[in-house]
Write a structure and sequence with these properties.
With 290 residues, this protein is an alpha/beta fold. The protein folds into 2 domains: 2-134; 143-289, Rossmann fold. It contains 10 helices and 10 strands. The strands form 2 sheets. A 6-stranded parallel β-sheet has the order 7-6-5-8-9-10, with helices on both faces.
Amino acid sequence: MRIVKIIGGLGNQMFQYALALSLQHRFEDEEVKLDLHCFRGYRKHYGFELPRIFNVRYAAASLCEIARVAYPYPNYLSWKAGHRLLPARRTMLVEQADMKPVDDLFDRTSIGYYDGYWQHESYFSAIGERVRAAFAFPDLTDERNRAVLQTVTTGNSVGIHVRRGDYLTDPLFRGTCPAGYYDRAIHLTEARVNPDVYVVFSNDMAWCRQYFATIRERKKVLFVDWNRGQESYRDMQLMSLCRHQIIANSSFSWWAAWLNPYAGKTVIGPAKWMNLEGASSPMCADWLQV
């Protein structure tokens, strides 16, 4: 049995589930389960979102099953304290802080527990179509979202993700995507694809409306600010349906760009993903970094 720990927001959960699918593909005679215990007492985001949004299949690991290969933390607080103090067991693979890809991950047959975010396409590139099928969104039914859908699928659209809020104070991400990043990304987008509409998604729409004021003088700009709470995944869905993307250093918009099926898409992302020397970037090889 192999167990993948699930934690974080929707984008992180998608990376972790994609790894679980890859492990199931690589070790087809073994059962792969998910450790969901860290969501007990976890007050960020909206809990374990995958089964609420997607038609995913999974089995949850029990504490007894986890104890065979890792430390059986019953909740988030115990994990947060324990993982800093206790060394990894030989059956555990704990991702390093710099998130550099583990090239031989699927060759480590003795590993039974995977603790990390696994934010690299290389972990699931062999089963890309299976991952896309797992992350098929439900149909849009809200009138406003359907109106945006009509706009982005009939025009040369660019979805832009601006993540501020928590990123303004988090030392790991503070200052990584300033206004200058969006200046350069939009300039590059204008030169390459000459879009007719920008669609903006953000957790700080007041800042976005001020920033895009000058752009609105020459281009159509839509601000999608109504998909909140447990419906916020609709922003990822709409972003993925835009023809091109300018993403933030966020797994949320990373998945929107990756799930974009348009063969001629242009995806632009930040060259610096986090404030950590030597940190790896999850940007795909054919995406543009600025």
